[in-house]
């Protein structure tokens, strides 16, 4: 993405008049000055960075004047430990900057040093207390503070271990900024937050999250005052280190109304959803169009309620990785109420469709199992309504609104991968054939020439032809099973039906090395889907026998693409690709007896942490391999039945 689009300038670029390099000052102040990054403006898509202090929009710079101990006097005044000076941050500080930034913000807010925040800490009780950021014997490893380890939801001053997407240089990437009193239980917190402006709650009084930095909605300290800051003040974003320019304070005021969470509905869970979870939910989506879709959609009651549910699940799985969040009574009750509300009609609104996709994501973030099929049917019915307004699916995607297009494409993608689990034809099969079939869609070239309106790459990182191939493979597997059950299967007919799909999957995607890291992540994802789809196809044709030569060869091809990604891509790109292609990891893992291949696939999935379905898929692979170890190598792997029984969604 060009620098002009996101406000990030490369080294050597001339500074705008009045701008300030974020690189100056001591390490502590450089971290402190970054905790007020704001999301991109919906019209200009530029970062506007500011803080209100003493009623004036400005950044309190490090004065670089040192006391007798070598501490900068800005840190002394703010009661922060000064971490020293230097032109380039040391490695230990780079690893810990996100956690330190959250700790600093929590400390300053708790002491009433940010306008609009009523201090919750008693400054008289220990006036000399300062925030220690590094112990003398601390190696600054990735370990958490004792406080952070003991808090269920959310972790004040802590850092979520896997909260960054591959797109950390883009506006939608964020870090945790939710403050909840640890004295409250998880369900207490959720009850208060999920109920806020719920479509099922009679009390719809809005509140400003800045009113209570260290407590739950409804809390009011004796001297607290309502903040006059825009709600977006608290939408934190991870900024590229040492390359950030700060805009002059005089340019800020005209943007505040555009940066607020729509409708003034900023609560802690919505804030966390917009700030952290969206980037993980749609890791490969277009980061220019996505804010337009999300920020307008979150005004809807159903979507906002679903967003709160997803945000809670993300936080809870970070705190308690081994326990599904939806086992808690409160989130389950909120889920049931949301489902009940949508069960009352036969047609659905845009708001309800966005909610349905978000609830599906909630199941994914909670391990991948659940009633996602019911919600997928809601999204399908809404998408069918949108598509039915036009002469053809192609015309619909070209002419509908950005939000409608996003909904339709996302629903198609979920549906295609769901068909692997359900072992039924995709609901959108006829639509997919019209849109993406190489012989009939009119789209014969690869990704580069596909109009953005018709491209699946900018939503889920998979070419339209691969989406078509995956849908047709699922249908072919369904057709084969039906023919076998009737005693009518013709193997030559099966091979003939598979040939166009095999041909489609034989051509790799051309990729220009001049493309952005966004395009690289999508390219890598699409290639992994292409090669793993061949594994899926050949298993349908030949049976689920890992030692069949063409199945083993196709698994090797997929591993080669994966190894290339590991060798040449950044950690951020790898994370986005792995989380987006769990289908490939599972299918290839099930259909190989090669222990080295299994180790590579399992290790890479396990490294992605407990949020999402990666860890659940590791457990499912272990189950498949355990069953396989007790079988004859001449028997097929029963991976399809295991997947269907577990109701695991491979998204």
Automatic annotation (TrEMBL):
Q: Where in the cell is it found?
A: Nucleus
> Per the record, what is one GO cellular component?
nucleus
What name has this protein been given in UniProt?
A: Fungal-specific transcription factor domain-containing protein
Q: Does the keyword Nucleotide-binding apply?
A: no
Its main localization is nucleus
Q: Does the keyword Nucleus apply?
A: yes
Q: Which Pfam families match?
A: Fungal_trans_2 (PF11951)
Q: Which organism is it from?
A: Armillaria tabescens
Residue segments, region Disordered: 136-156
């Amino acid at each position: 993405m060009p620098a002009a689009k996101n406000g990030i300038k490369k080294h050597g670029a001339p500074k705008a008049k009045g701008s300030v390099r974020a690189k100056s000052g001591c390490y502590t102040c450089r971290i402190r000055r970054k905790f007020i990054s704001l999301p991109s403006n919906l019209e200009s898509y530029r970062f506007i960075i500011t803080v209100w202090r003493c009623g004036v929009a400005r950044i309190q710079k490090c004065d670089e004047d040192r006391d007798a101990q070598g501490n900068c006097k800005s840190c002394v005044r703010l009661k922060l430990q000064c971490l020293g000076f230097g032109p380039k941050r040391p490695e230990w500080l780079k690893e810990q900057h996100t956690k330190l930034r959250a700790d600093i913000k929590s400390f300053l807010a708790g002491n009433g040093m940010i306008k609009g925040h009523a201090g919750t800490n008693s400054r008289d009780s220990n006036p000399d207390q300062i925030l220690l950021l590094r112990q003398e014997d601390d190696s600054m490893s990735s370990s958490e503070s004792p406080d952070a380890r003991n808090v269920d939801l959310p972790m004040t001053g802590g850092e979520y271990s896997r909260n960054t997407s591959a797109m950390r240089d883009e506006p939608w990437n964020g870090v945790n900024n939710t403050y909840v009193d640890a004295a409250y239980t998880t369900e207490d917190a959720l009850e208060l937050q999920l109920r806020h402006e719920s479509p099922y709650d009679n009390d719809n009084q809005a509140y400003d999250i800045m009113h209570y930095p260290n407590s739950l909605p409804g809390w009011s300290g004796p001297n607290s005052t309502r903040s006059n800051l825009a709600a977006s003040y608290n939408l934190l974003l991870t900024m590229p280190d040492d390359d950030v320019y700060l805009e002059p304070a005089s340019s800020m005021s005209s943007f505040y109304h555009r940066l607020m969470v729509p409708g003034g509905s900023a609560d802690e869970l919505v804030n966390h959803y917009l700030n952290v979870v969206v980037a993980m939910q749609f890791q490969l989506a277009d980061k220019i169009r996505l804010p337009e879709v999300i920020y307008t959609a979150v005004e809807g009651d159903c979507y906002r309620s679903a967003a709160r549910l997803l945000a809670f699940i993300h936080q809870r799985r970070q705190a308690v990785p081994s326990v599904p969040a939806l086992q808690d009574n409160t989130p389950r009750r909120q889920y049931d109420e949301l489902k009940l509300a949508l069960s009352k009609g036969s047609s659905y609104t845009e708001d309800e469709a966005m909610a349905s996709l978000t609830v599906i994501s909630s199941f994914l973030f909670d391990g991948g199992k659940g009633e996602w099929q019911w919600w997928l049917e809601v999204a399908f019915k809404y998408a069918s309504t949108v598509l039915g307004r036009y002469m053809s699916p192609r015309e619909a995607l070209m002419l509908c609104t950005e939000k409608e297009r996003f909904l339709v494409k996302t629903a198609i993608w979920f549906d295609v991968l769901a068909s692997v689990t359900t072992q039924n034809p995709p609901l959108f099969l006829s639509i997919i054939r019209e849109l993406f079939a190489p012989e009939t869609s009119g789209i014969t070239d690869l990704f580069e020439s596909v109009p953005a309106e018709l491209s699946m790459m900018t939503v889920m990182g998979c070419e339209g032809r691969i989406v078509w191939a995956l849908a047709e493979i699922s249908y072919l597997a369904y057709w084969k099973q039906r023919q076998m059950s009737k005693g009518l299967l013709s193997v030559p007919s099966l091979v003939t039906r598979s040939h166009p799909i095999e041909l489609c999957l034989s051509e790799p995607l051309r990729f220009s090395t001049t493309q952005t890291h966004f395009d690289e992540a999508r390219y890598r994802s699409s290639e992994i889907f292409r090669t793993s789809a061949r594994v899926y196809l050949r298993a349908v044709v030949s049976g689920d026998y890992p030692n069949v030569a063409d199945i083993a060869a196709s698994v090797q091809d997929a591993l080669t693409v994966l190894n290339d990604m590991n060798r040449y891509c950044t950690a951020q790109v790898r994370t986005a690709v792995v989380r987006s292609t769990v289908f490939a990891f599972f299918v290839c893992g099930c259909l190989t007896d090669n222990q080295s291949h299994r180790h590579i696939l399992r290790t890479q999935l396990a490294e992605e942490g407990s949020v999402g379905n990666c860890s659940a898929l590791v457990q499912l692979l272990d189950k498949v391999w355990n069953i396989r170890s007790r079988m004859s190598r001449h028997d097929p792997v029963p991976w399809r039945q295991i997947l269907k029984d577990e109701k695991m969604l491979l998204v």
